[in-house]
Amino acid sequence: MVIGAITGLVGFGLFLTMILLADQVDNNKQADEDELQPVQSSEESIVMYALQHGAFSSRDAAAQYMNENPTLNLATIIPHNQLYYIWSIILPGKHEVSQDIPSFWKEVTLQNKCSQHPNLLEHFKNLSENNLLNINEFATKIPTEWAESLQKVAILSSDIGVWRVQLLGTDIETSGCIQYNF
Questions:
Q1: Which residues share a beta bridge with 50?
Q2: Confidence band, pLDDT 50/70/90 cuts, at residue 36
Q3: SS3 content of the chain, % helix, strand, coil (to 5)
Q4: How far apart are alpha carbons 67 and 38 in whole angstroms?
Q5: What is the model's pLDDT at position 2?
Q6: Contact, 168 vs 142, CB < 8 A?
Q7: How far is the C-alpha of 95 from the C-alpha of 104, rounded, in Å?
Q8: Could you tell me the CA-to-CA distances from 172 to 97, 132, 147, 175 in Å, in that order?
Q9: 3-class SS at 128?
Q10: Tell me, what's the pLDDT at 8?
Q11: Could you tell me if 132 and 126 are in contact, meaning their C-beta atoms sit under 8 angstroms apart?
Q12: Which residues contact 172 (CB under 8 A, 6 or more apart)?
């Protein structure tokens, strides 16, 4: 029970740190750069499924909802078309989940928009395979700028779907290489 409480507190602290960092990034960007536009390219894409827990009109409202629901301590806020969505995992297919809060699966199309990381989409394809069982193998398949985020979230969760949603959140806040549409 003590370990659970400590894990919960560490997760909550990580969540607050991510929200503070996201707010700093948002303050430094122009409003147009804050939200990604829908994908309109003919480049290769992959389809995955995000477990969504709500759509909010502001980042603050989404963060407040996450604070009120401790099971969302590893979820990520995803901006899209002037709304802020809460996603807890991204998987290659829909799976039955049991949670205390309302959720549903949202189909998401992902595309790589960065020439400096031409294999980024391939990394997401690799993550959809069930053979990635440990963090060391997983870390060799992602860009180096994601390594710090991965190390933090891997301490709190062994779920690759959680890792994937956290890495997408990191990408949105940093390089914006992965474009998404739903």
A1: 90, 106
A2: very low
A3: 45, 20, 30
A4: 28
A5: 52
A6: no
A7: 10
A8: 26, 23, 15, 6
A9: coil
A10: 52
A11: yes
A12: 36, 78, 79, 178
Hey, what are 65's tokens? 């909802």
Note the pTM of the prediction, 2 decimals.
Answer: 0.69
- What CA–CA distance (Å, rounded) separates 124 from 128? 6
130, pLDDT greater than 50: no
Q: DSSP for 64-109, please give it.
A: HHHHH-GGGTT-EEEEETTEEEEEEEEESS------SS--EEEEEE
Using the CB atoms, write b or e for 156-169: b if 16+ within 10 Å.
Answer: bbeebbbbbbbbbb
Residue 97: pLDDT band (50, 70, 90) is confident
- Tell me how crowded residue 151 is: count the other CB atoms within 10 A of its CB: 11
Helix (H, G, I), strand (E, B) or coil at 36: strand
Other beta carbons within 10 angstroms of residue 83's beta carbon come to 14
- Cα–Cα distances (Å) from 10 to 5, 94, 113, 148, in that order, read 9, 29, 34, 16
